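Q: What structure does this chain adopt?
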Amino acid sequence: MTQKHAVKTLNRYPILSLPIPIHSIEEIIADNGYSLSCCDGIHKPCIYQYELILPKFKTTSDCRYALAHELGHISVHGREKSTIDTISKHEAIADAFALYFTMPPYLFEKDIKRMNEWDLAEKYGMPVEQVINRMKLCGHYQYQ
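A:
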């Protein structure tokens, strides 16, 4: 289900370059009715009403992942309220959405056959730990 949401979003907003440009993710978020703002005093992004409030990120890959994660909340859950007992499920779904969105199945699953996690991280503009998480979704990551 999450993979389908990510692919549907990618099809709706054709993005022709990798890594997916940060401004493209911001435009999709804005197109869904949310404004974006930055706040130096926070450490994680949060959504309040129709505003996505972002911290200052150390790297562009962290920013790309965080924006895609928040887009996952917006795309999959919309404006529905979360209850305490479903927060971890919502977070896991948003994480999976971010991984499928930033590393599309139709490209990534070919690339993992010929590239290591460091090369994949560079190609997709993602932190290596998230590339490894994406590989796990494919069943192609083996612990060493």
